[in-house]
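Mods, move this if it's the wrong board.
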Amino acid sequence: MIGYVCVGTNDMARATGFYDALFGEMGVKRMMEFDGFVIWGKPGAAALAVVKPFDGNAATVGNGVMVALSAGSKDNVDKLYAKAMELGATDEGKPGPRGDTFYAAYFRDLDGNKLNLFVMS
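Not the wrong board. Structure tokens:
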């Protein structure tokens, strides 16, 4: 249902470095790249884009907005969360169970955008 999600940045080089390293751990590479817009994903799957706001104003964090990334396994949740922390992300919830069938970790990227790594069993 979701084609892609955009998160804003005020520092494209810093943001793309963060996501290149994080998504590299998932085997995901850049799909498209334009001035002020970079998107990571795989053909036929949902993708994530980092954008400079098109209206020219500063990027700000959406209150209540979160991007959830399917990690495939608990080990991947743990590994990717650790990578995000290593890259300078801010903890919003360490890896662990949330209920009986949901395992997740939460963090904010370098621009303050909230992301979630998860697996459901």
